[in-house]
């Protein structure tokens, strides 16, 4: 068993919440950009039972010492727990749906490997999967400057093993002005000793298809995606499948 996993026990995130709440306020300087970038992933990991203190000691130390970052983390964790537990203000429920497709399509990535350093990984998210896991724009965390506006929607989180390299992959979208999504990608090596190779990312979602290069920090920002091309706000439904591909390249491209 993974030493960083607390057996997905239901009370684990609550125990973590109580432990962090008991800490002194500490300094409340604005969190670093890279810490905010990892916040939603860490909240998800904690909710799923991962012992983030053991698995991500550097980030956890920042939670202990930075009161503002800790407040963001706890608020997001509270929201996720209440949402999953159904203790938020109830909304009219949809009719019962056949979710057997979730067993048939486990969303495991397709890994193609020509050599030790040449590989491509492709993830697929169907309309049904997007609608089931993200039925509406869901608050995960908000930026440091304006807690009320910077809303991020999680689209894909996964961990992939490529030879001796393990990568955390997080795809999210910020709902920007003029009804557009601003997709953002993070690719983070699990081990601090691993060097991130040059990676090219391709996002296809309906008629939208864009290719970008992941920078040295493991980040990439895709061009704006018109919300109307993939989401029906009246029916509250996604209307197109999503596909993300990561591919190793010999040298970075502009």
Please, could you describe this protein's structure?
With 254 residues, this protein is of the alpha+beta class. It has two domains: 74 residues, no CATH class; 148 residues, Apoptosis, Tumor Necrosis Factor Receptor Associated Protein 2, Chain A (Sandwich), CATH 2.60.210. 27% of the residues lie in helices and 29% in strands. It contains seven helices and twelve strands. The strands form three sheets. Strands 1-2-12-6-7 form a five-stranded antiparallel β-sheet. Strands 3, 4, 5, 8 and 9 form a five-stranded antiparallel β-sheet that branches. It has a two-stranded antiparallel ribbon with strand order 10-11. A hairpin with a 4-residue loop joins strand 4 and strand 5. Helix 2 packs parallel to helix 5. The longest helix is centred in the N-terminal third of the chain and has 19 residues. The protein is globular, with a radius of gyration of 19 Å. The termini are far apart. The N terminus is likely disordered.
């Amino acid at each position: 068993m993974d030493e960083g996993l607390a057996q997905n026990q239901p009370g684990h995130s609550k125990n973590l919440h109580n432990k962090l709440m008991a800490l002194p306020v500490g300094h409340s300087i604005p969190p670093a950009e890279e810490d905010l970038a990892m916040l939603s992933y860490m909240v998800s990991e904690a909710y799923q039972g991962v012992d983030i203190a053991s698995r991500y000691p550097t980030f956890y130390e920042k939670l202990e010492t930075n009161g503002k970052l800790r407040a963001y983390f706890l608020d997001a964790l509270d929201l996720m727990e209440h949402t999953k537990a159904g203790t938020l203000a109830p909304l009219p429920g949809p009719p019962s749906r056949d979710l057997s497709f979730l067993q048939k399509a486990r969303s495991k990535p397709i890994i193609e490997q020509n050599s030790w350093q040449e590989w491509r990984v492709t993830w697929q998210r169907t309309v049904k999967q997007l609608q089931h896991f993200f039925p509406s724009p869901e608050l995960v965390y908000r930026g440091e400057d304006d807690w009320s506006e910077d809303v991020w929607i999680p689209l894909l989180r996964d961990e992939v093993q490529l030879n001796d390299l393990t990568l955390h992959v997080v795809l999210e979208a910020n709902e920007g002005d003029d009804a557009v999504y601003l997709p953002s990608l993070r690719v983070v090596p699990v081990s601090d000793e691993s060097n991130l190779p040059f990676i090219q990312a391709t996002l296809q979602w309906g008629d939208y298809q864009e290719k970008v290069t992941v920078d040295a920090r493991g980040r990439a920002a895709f061009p704006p995606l018109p919300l109307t091309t993939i989401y029906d706000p009246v029916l509250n439904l996604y209307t197109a499948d999503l596909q993300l591909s990561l591919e190793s390249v010999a040298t970075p491209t502009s």
